[in-house]
Amino acid sequence: MKTLIKTVAAVALIAVSTFVMAADKAASISEKAIVNHFTADLALEHYVAVITEGESIGVDQLFTGDFNQIQSTESKAIGRDQLIKFLKNQKGEKLNCRVTTQIIDESADYMIAKVTMKFEHFTKTDLVTLVRERDSWKVSKSINSYK
């Protein structure tokens, strides 16, 4: 009887550890999941989620190779790799702000949108340019200003 209990306990322990390892691998695979931005609206929605909600899935695919972000108050440009590294470090961090988006101009191959993030004591405005590359939309430029 004691042998049966030990065997059942060992099998249960192996099963639980297998499920935990499989769940961990699934999480790491989803981090590298491909996010398709078939429309400019989907790419803009994903950009807002990455910037304001700490979304990290697909962040590598969101920006063009020559992306840059300009901070208008400092006249300072930030490149693609630097921003992606920052955003990955912010994974899961949600900003306490109210977000609105407005499409300023749009064509078959580009979109310019205004993303406004209203915080308690200031407002951040982000003018975002999205371009179509093959079958996917990507963010190519971002200009930030603060009030």
Please give the share of residues in helix: 25-40%
Low-confidence runs? 20-31
Number of strands: 6
Instruction: Give the termini distance in whole angstroms.
Output: 74 Å
Shape: globular
- Mean pLDDT, rounded to whole units? 78
Give, in spatial order, the strands making up the sheet with the most strands. Answer: 2-1-6-5-4-3
Give the number of helices.
4
The structural class is alpha+beta
Q: What is the percentage of strand-forming residues?
A: 35-45%
Detailed description of the structure:
It is a single chain. With 147 residues, this protein is of the alpha+beta class. Helix content is 39%, strand content 36%. It contains 4 helices and 6 strands; from the N terminus they run αααββαββββ. Strands 2-1-6-5-4-3 form a 6-stranded mixed sheet. β5 and β6 form a beta hairpin. About 8% of the residues have low confidence.
Compose a concise summary of this entry.
This protein is an alpha+beta fold and 147 residues long. Helix content is 39%, strand content 36%.
List keywords for this structure.
single chain; 147 residues; alpha+beta; 4 helices; 39% helix
Walk me through the topology.
Elements: H1 2-31, H2 40-53, H3 59-62, E1 63-71, E2 76-79, H4 80-89, E3 98-106, E4 110-118, E5 123-133, E6 136-146
Parallel strand pairs: 1-6
Antiparallel strand pairs: 1-2, 3-4, 4-5, 5-6
